[in-house]
Amino acid sequence: MSPAVRVLERVVCQAPFGLRLWDPATATQQVPGLQIDLSPLARPGQRVRALVNPSGVYCALGLPGLAAFERADADAPADWTAALRGFRVQILDPAGRYLPLAFDAALPHQGLFDPGLSGSPLPGPFPLPESPPASPPATALPRVTLFSAPSRPVPGGLAAVRAQLWETPAGRPAAWCLLAATIDGVTRGLGLADREGRVLILFPYPARPRPTLTSPPSPKNDFSWTLTLTAYYRPRPTGVPVPAIPDLADLQAQLASPRMLLGSLSPPQPLPPLPLEYAVPLTARTSATPVEESSYLFVDAT
Prior knowledge:
About 30% of the residues are buried. Helices cover about 5% and strands about 35% of the residues. The protein has helices spanning about 65-70, 250-255; strands at about 15-20, 35-40, 50, 50, 55-60, 85-90, 100-105, 145, 160-170, 170-175, 180-185, 185-190, 200-205, 225-230, 260-265, 270, 275, 280-285, 285-290, 290-295, 295-300. With about 300 residues, it is mainly beta.
């Protein structure tokens, strides 16, 4: 018979911040290796690093001004609003798989943190405006979508669409421009251009078309789809520097500003739908002349 154990003291610490991330390319919420730092808006130089738990949620403890809340009695009803403080959250990937993101947060926050953009394309799965609903359902846990960096190795079995976006007539990279890839009216992937305008969209291929019945049956590997690209972009005023890290709310605001992509410069024409072949990466470019492609995909910001 084992002796009875008497608990003399129990120490419980409440986490004022928990963040779940989402990689839409591989459809996973397990994204280890990120650096997520929180700093008070009043003291930007004072940072606290969030740590990931076995469930893939990044949690932060020891936040300035929230010590009393973190040590409060866990059995008593918690007041999540009495000790609210403003923090800046920055997400970086030292491995270079994902582009950086930043947003403001009022903490402590009950449950997983939601940047206030629920139902939009950015914190969770798309669709973009005009697109059919996509899974998972609206009851999915709050999370923030990550965007693939242009240097990210392409996982096997995924479609890869690349472009280097250039703003016209300003003649500069379309930094932090959103680029959506649509097939048959469904938004399959959403990419974010980096500071140099380079963008990579990764997404699973749609279901393959039904094979034509032949006798004898013949193998077919040349599956293809028709892909449409759409840019969402708000050009920055002249003289305003490109932010080193884009703000999540600013990215969301760009969805109200669709821009025409140019298929040719001489004469200026919209970008037509593009053929996407199975297992063949696609690079979208604007034609500089009827017989020559440019190095860029031009975004009309007029």
